[in-house]
């Protein structure tokens, strides 16, 4: 994030605008990247599985995976000899993580420096004990491409969970992440819109996991280098983030916030 973008967002917030992020990242993976931004609203994190307050450092809302679905997911993972990280929200509103095998900790995407720096607790637990940590909201599966491909279809057939299969550009490994079917960037953004009684939701999105949020928004924007589906779904196509595209739209179109009823809730891409 450039200083210009951070400054523009901060001016928007100081003027009464409502701004937050919606991201596939874990909250601890966002904190340092967003240090220059005054995020007073909870962020939509983990593909919408939870909302995280950057002011209290706690999770304020989440979409649990049911106990039955946790068992079904765990059975499929074990049958396919895959590894996993299971993410739980504790009674204190913090995050605790179970991992299945010692070798799973080699996956720096999940057992990351950021997670360790922010003192996220990782505990080796068998699936039947995952719930000991709290309410399970997200599961990341570790395995070969063939193992993940074998899991995706039966997980989708459950109907009550959703999967996110993608290639990690840093590790060049496929990743399969699982959340409640009720979760999503759109769900998180709509929850905030209602809680804040905002008149409008303006969404910025660039990837497939942004499409639901963009469809739910009153107005949506996509940078010209977004995936084709996001470009097609957007109300308006804008410049890239390398050229401060989001910030320039906010500055030119939404900076004049005159009264509370005119405030716009903005969910940015990541």
Query: Strand share of the residues?
Result: 25-35%
Measured distance between first and last alpha carbons: 11 Å
Widest β-sheet, arrangement of strands: 7-6-5-8-10-9
Beta strands, count: 14
Whole-number mean pLDDT:
90
By CATH reckoning, the class of the largest domain would read Alpha Beta
Largest sheet: 6 strands, mixed
Q: What's the CATH topology name of the largest domain? A: Rossmann fold
Percent in helix: 25-40%
Shape: globular
Number of domains: 2
Number of helices: 8
Taking all Cα atoms into account, the compactness measure Rg is: 19 Å
Uncertain stretches of 5 or more adjacent residues: 257-262
Order of helices and strands: HEEEEHEEHEEHEEHEHEHEHE
Could you name the CATH homologous superfamily of the largest domain?
Answer: HAD superfamily/HAD-like
CATH architecture verdict of the largest domain: 3-Layer(aba) Sandwich
Task: Describe the 3D structure.
This protein has 2 domains: 3-61 and 185-268, HAD superfamily/HAD-like (Rossmann fold); 67-180, Hypothetical Protein, Haloacid Dehalogenase-like Hydrolase, Chain: A, domain 2 (2-Layer Sandwich). Helix 1 packs parallel to helix 8 and helix 2 packs antiparallel against helix 4 (145-158). The chain contains 8 helices and 14 strands. It starts with a helix and ends with a strand. The protein has 270 residues and is α/β, with parallel strands linked by helices. The strands form 3 sheets. The chain has a 6-stranded mixed β-sheet, covered by helices on one side. Strands 1-14-11-12-13 form a 5-stranded parallel β-sheet, with helices on both faces. Strands 2-3-4 form a 3-stranded antiparallel β-sheet, with helices on one face. The chain is globular and about 55 Å long. Residues 257-262 have low confidence and may be disordered.
């Amino acid at each position: 994030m450039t200083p210009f973008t951070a400054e523009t967002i901060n001016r928007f917030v100081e003027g009464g605008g409502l701004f937050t992020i919606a991201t596939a990242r874990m909250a601890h993976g966002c904190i340092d990247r967003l240090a220059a931004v005054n995020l007073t609203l909870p962020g939509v994190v983990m593909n919408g599985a939870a909302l995280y307050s950057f002011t209290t450092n706690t999770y304020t809302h989440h979409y649990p995976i049911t106990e039955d679905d946790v068992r079904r997911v765990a059975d499929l993972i074990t049958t396919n000899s895959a590894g996993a990280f299971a993410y739980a929200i504790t009674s204190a509103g913090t995050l605790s993580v179970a991992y299945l095998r010692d070798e799973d900790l080699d996956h720096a995407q999940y057992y990351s420096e950021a997670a360790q720096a922010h003192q996220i607790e990782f505990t080796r637990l068998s699936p039947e004990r995952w719930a000991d940590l709290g309410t399970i909201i997200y599961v990341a599966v570790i395995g070969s491409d063939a193992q993940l491909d074998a899991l995706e279809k039966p997980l989708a057939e459950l109907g009550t969970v959703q999967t996110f299969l993608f290639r990690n550009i840093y590790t060049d490994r496929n990743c399969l992440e699982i959340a409640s079917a009720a979760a999503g960037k759109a769900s998180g953004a709509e929850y905030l819109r209602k809680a804040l009684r905002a008149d409008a939701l303006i969404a910025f999105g660039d990837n497939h996991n942004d499409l639901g949020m963009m469809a739910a928004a009153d107005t949506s924007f996509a940078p010209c280098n977004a995936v084709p589906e996001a470009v097609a779904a957007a109300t308006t196509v804008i410049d890239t983030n390398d050229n401060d595209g989001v910030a320039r739209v906010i500055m030119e179109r939404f900076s004049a916030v005159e009264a509370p009823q005119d405030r716009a809730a903005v969910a940015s891409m990541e």
